[in-house]
Amino acid sequence: MTDMGYTVIYEKSRTGWGAYLPDLPGCVATGRTLPLTKRRIREAMALHIQGMQEDGQRVPRPRALADVVEIGTGHDSHFVATNRSGFARTPAGSGDRRISARPERVRS
Q1: What's the CATH code, domain 9-54?
Q2: Which of 89, 84, 90 shows the shortest CA–CA distance to 102?
Q3: Separation between Cα atoms, residue 27 and residue 3, nearest integer Å
Q4: For residues 5 and 95, which has the higher predicted lDDT (pLDDT)?
Q5: Is the Cα dihedral 82, 86, 88, 89 positive or negative?
Q6: In 22-94, where does DSSP find H-type helix?
Q7: Can you give the residue ranges of every domain in the chain?
Q8: Do residues 37 and 43 make contact, with C-beta atoms less than 8 angstroms apart?
């Protein structure tokens, strides 16, 4: 199998870090520090893919992309998070509201 590069999403929590891969559902890792979480997600990926191969499952090709999008801070600014299934938008001035890594579609 050719080496593949998967997108990993890292999220900070109150107690450390979490990581997941949108293209490998169920493949997750956590750690108290970001370097520890990065090491653990690499191990989790290897085990996850090995398990899929041993079970005769098709290993999905990488499809997800991630990007950091900077936004303005003016009156008309919005926080935007996107994924394959839709988008979420929080109008500026509505306070700090956490947007999930997998937001639901919201209508404006």
Answers
A1: 3.30.160.250
A2: 84
A3: 18
A4: 5
A5: positive
A6: 34-54
A7: 9-54, 67-108
A8: no
